[in-house]
Amino acid sequence: MKSPQVTHHFDSPVVLEFTESVIESWYPGERPILFVPCAKSKPIQNSKSHKQLFHRFQDCCEMLIISEPMTVIPYSFFDYPPYEYPPSALWRIKGEAEKFKRRLARFIQRKRLNERCCRFLLPQHHLLILWASWERAFGNVENLDGYGYTYATRWFFAEKLIQELCD
Fold this sequence. Notes:
Elements: H1 13-25, E1 33-37, H2 48-57, E2 62-67, E3 71-74, H3 89-92, H4 96-110, E4 118-123, H5 124-138, E5 144-149, H6 154-165
Helix pairs in contact: 4-5
């Protein structure tokens, strides 16, 4: 099976427009923030794994999808452009990882997420981006906690987060 090709880069006009619209229009509510990864199928919220995540966390968290190249997709936003961006492309295309970190840092800083309860349930490559962005924005990784997972441990850590955030 051939891997998908990159359809939009971080500097694509439609990506820049979407990223700016999220920065300008999304505001956190009162519930804790949970950062989750993107998915192969689009819209992401309709993927099997995301339906399972949403079912588990919908009543206790605001979910933010970490996505290359869209940066952040609030779970309530279904109106993002269709795109393909295999995670490995982030490290192969010069400058893309840096753009991702810079944009994510700008988002979390503008939304003052360091003042909130923020958790993550992310695979390693998204976790590295989030940590670097958080440190860039705030100089540390305080008020950011959660679990990095492998495919085999995802649901184990999801259950631990449910106990921490929802019970």
